[in-house]
Structures are given as structure tokens and as C-alpha cells.
């Protein structure tokens, strides 16, 4: 099973890492991949520093036991952010658009979660 978490507020960023870890730890759910998609400039800025950065790094490091993790930011929101892709933790990827990425993943069978 593959799951995408849609994060559009700084508050959601503050606990998405815990949601990802909880999902990966749930032995009743066979998870092969988890992605977090961010579509807000404010969240991108929060992800570049301090606690937000640590949460992104936690998501990226949470994979293992056969489950991959990814953290993607909307390229449109990135243009409106103060931070650049280079300011974000290594491994963060830019998606052409957040809504496009969410649509593509859901079309490909990913479960959608909005924390």
C-alpha cells in the first residue's frame, strides 16, 4: 500500500512526521511507500529551519523495512516562498504542482491522507 499525506498548513507540518511514523509502525497495514506533498509557501519556509526542518528530516529517514519515503514541495508554492529548494533538507524534491502531484498519485492508487 502507498500513502500520500497532503500538508498545506504549518500546523500540519508540526505533526506529519508522527503520522508517518505511526503508519509505518502499524503492522496491520502493509506500507511500501509514503510521500508528503506540501503546497504552501509558508510551510516550505517553515520546513527550511528549526523544528520544521527536523520534521522533514524525520520523514525522509523514516523509510526502511521495505518502505520508501519522499517529501515533495509544489514548484508553484516554492516560487512564493522565501526558502529555495537548496535551503531544504537533502532529499526534498520539487513537484511541478502540488495538486498535480496529488492527482497523479491518487490516480496511481495511492491512499490520500490530510492530517
What is the domain total for the residues? Answer: 1
List the total number of helices.
5
Radius of gyration over C-alpha positions, nearest whole angstrom: 13 Å
Element string (H = helix, E = strand): EHEHHEHEHE
CATH class: Alpha Beta
Low-confidence stretches are none
Give the strand tally: 5
CATH architecture: 3-Layer(aba) Sandwich
What is the name of the CATH topology? Hypothetical Protein Ychn, Chain: A
Q: In this structure, how is the largest beta sheet organized?
A: 5 strands, parallel
Coarse structural class = alpha/beta
Strand order of the largest sheet: 4-3-2-1-5
Write down the overall geometry.
globular
Query: What is the CATH superfamily?
Result: DsrEFH-like
Share of residues in strands: 15-25%
Protein name: DsrE/DsrF-like family protein
InterPro entries: DsrEFH-like (IPR027396)
How is this structure best described in words?
The protein has a single domain, classed as 3-Layer(aba) Sandwich (Hypothetical Protein Ychn, Chain: A), CATH 3.40.1260. The protein contains 5 helices and 5 strands, in the order E-H-E-H-H-E-H-E-H-E. It has helices spanning 10-25, 41-47, 50-61, 75-80, 98-107, and strands at 2-7, 33-38, 68-74, 93-95, 111-113. The chain starts with a strand and ends with a strand. The mean pLDDT is 96.
